[in-house]
TrEMBL record:
GO cellular component: membrane
Listed InterPro entries: AA/rel_permease1
Record's bilayer topology term: Multi-pass membrane protein
UniProt-listed Pfam families: AA_permease_2
Protein name: Amino acid transporter
Organism superkingdom: Eukaryota
Transmembrane domains' residue ranges: 30-52, 58-78, 111-137, 149-166, 173-200, 220-238, 259-284, 313-333, 362-382, 388-409, 430-452, 464-485
Organism name: Rotaria socialis
UniProt keyword ATP-binding present: no
Keywords recorded for this protein, A-Z: Membrane, Transmembrane, Transmembrane helix, Transport
Localization terms from the record: Membrane
Keyword ATP-binding: no
Gene Ontology molecular functions: transmembrane transporter activity
Length: 508
């Protein structure tokens, strides 16, 4: 019998057999979270929103505030990830931390909020990329072509298919592409930032303007309210870092590397993103004209004000590729969550979604399911162009609810937690409480209307979306799943060395 390594034994101690190939290291696991956070993707999509909800002072200093409190959430999740390194991540943690009678309930709701959030994130990222591609095409053609909603949907479809194909080529290809994504996500904002800070044309903003100017074009008169809703772009970007947790069954020494990868991705993204924000606001020539630009996106206008059209297109193409890598990594993380959730029989058609393809050693069906749903979620755009912002808000709220539930379970039942190699020691409870307070705060924040007067077009539909997820998952649980869903279940065949497993369990 082949000797089992420590990672395999550790996974078996949690109830699962090793089915995925462990090719990922700390660096590539970090690359997955770095890619899905994607400073380039988030700021390209939401910079215009930030320009009207407080402007430079709120985006610059709000970025620091959001990053500071997000770190509490990240540390709390990293501690749980180290203790329970499985692809299921949050729903597994919630189920294992509560008494047996609550196991299925906690796992079910955590899993569905996390899954819906991931579906919405993928749809938002790829759809935002589709809009950005259309605007770049229009810009390159001197606005001779104006994209219609069906053009955006078709571009979105092509992007989704490309992500599905690349995620279907096997873990070796995935591993190599993740290395490339790391370089692209790091270098793109740095190159553009340095170009703006060093080579900006005369007429750009002053340092005082960048760090102190307040802009409000929301229609709301209360400045405190505007400052609060101005935190939303930063919080949307500091999201999805649970990708590191979903890749643990493919990561070597996952109980330590995945936790540090998650934390490192947030810290590095915060530093690079802050530099990028400063450079973008510094490069603005005419603030009002930038908001109402005919170039499609404010970032495009900022680059055009400082560089030639040809160089602007080069920079925009760098951003497009970075956004593509973000969607690519989102499909990867989403498919691993689908795989794990189906392995525990929580999804309709579970038998199909946790199958591992023999040649590519990846959950192929899960990959294409995530792509299909990402495409379907974009279709309402044909009837209502406010769909995009609704999906962004819903994705953030659903994911942060799923982040908060296992942390809440740990606080309520501290005696059930068996800490892993990475732990917070005596500060654990304090950090967990602060993270829950912050999550509660941003869930309320994302439910607030952002534009006044509130109408059918400017209304924030996030509460309706969250309530729909809660009602649908609750109805499914109490009417059906309550009688058959058990939460995380074992899929082991006990043919390994029991003494070795007992040793692993005792030492973790």
């Amino acid at each position: 019998m082949a000797t089992l390594d420590s990672d395999t034994l550790r996974l078996q101690s949690l109830g699962y057999k090793q089915e995925l190939k462990r090719r990922f290291t700390c660096l590539t696991n970090y690359g997955m979270s770095l890619s899905v956070i994607s400073i380039s993707s988030g700021l390209s999509s939401l910079f215009s929103y930030g320009m009207i909800t407080g402007g430079p002072v709120v985006m610059i200093w709000g970025w620091v505030v959001v990053w500071f409190f997000t770190l509490f959430v990240v540390f709390g999740m990293a501690e749980l990830c180290s203790a329970y390194p499985t692809s299921g991540g949050l729903y597994y943690w919630a189920g294992i931390l509560v008494p047996q009678r609550h196991k299925a309930f906690a796992s079910w709701f955590t899993g569905w909020f996390n899954l819906v959030g991931q579906f919405c994130v993928l749809a938002a990222v790829d759809f935002g990329l589709a809009i950005l591609i259309a605007s770049v095409i229009s810009f390159s053609l001197n606005s001779q072509w104006s994209p219609q909603p069906y053009h955006i949907i078709l571009i979105h479809l092509v992007i989704v298919i490309s992500h599905g194909i690349c995620n279907s080529l096997g873990t070796r290809f995935l591993y190599c592409l993740t290395y490339l994504s790391i370089c692209w996500q790091l270098l793109t904002p740095i190159i553009i930032s340095l170009a703006l800070l060093i080579g900006a044309k005369p007429g750009h903003q002053s340092i005082k303007y960048v760090f102190t100017e307040f802009k409000n074009e929301t229609g709301w008169k209360n400045q405190i309210y505007v400052i609060l809703i101005g935190l939303l772009p930063a919080q949307y970007i500091f999201n999805r870092y649970d990708a590191s947790a979903h890749m643990t069954e493919e990561t070597k020494h996952a109980d330590t590397t995945s936790s540090w990868a998650m934390i490192s991705a947030v810290v590095v993204s915060a530093m690079i993103g802050w530099l990028f924000l400063i450079a973008l606001f510094f490069g603005i020539h005419d603030y009002e004209a930038t908001i109402r630009t005919s170039a499609g996106f404010p970032i495009t206008q900022i680059l055009l004000d400082n560089f030639s059209k040809e160089l602007t297109l080069v920079f925009m193409c760098l951003l497009l590729v970075a956004c593509w890598f973000c969607g690519f990594a989102s499909v990867t993380a989403n498919s691993r969550m689908i795989y794990a959730f189906s392995r525990d029989h929580a999804m309709p058609g579970s038998y199909w979604w946790f199958k591992i393809h023999s040649r590519t050693t990846c959950p192929l069906n899960a990959v294409w399911l995530s792509c299909l749903i990402a495409f379907i979620l974009a279709l309402p755009y044909l009837a209502n162009t406010t769909t995009y912002m609704a999906i962004i808000s819903l994705s953030t709220v659903c994911l942060y609810i799923s982040y908060g539930l296992p942390i809440l379970c740990k606080i309520l039942y501290p005696h059930t937690f068996l800490r892993g190699p990475f732990h917070l020691g005596r500060f654990s409870r304090f950090i967990n409480v602060i993270s829950l307070i912050w999550i509660s705060f941003i869930v309320v924040l994302f439910a607030l209307p952002t534009i006044y007067p509130v109408s059918g077009v400017t209304m924030n539909y996030t509460p309706i979306g969250v309530l729909s997820v809660l009602i649908c998952s609750g109805f499914a649980y109490f009417c059906s799943a309550k009688y058959w869903f058990e939460g995380p279940v074992t899929n082991l065949t006990f043919n390994y060395n029991k003494d070795k497993l007992d040793f692993v369990v005792k030492n973790f």
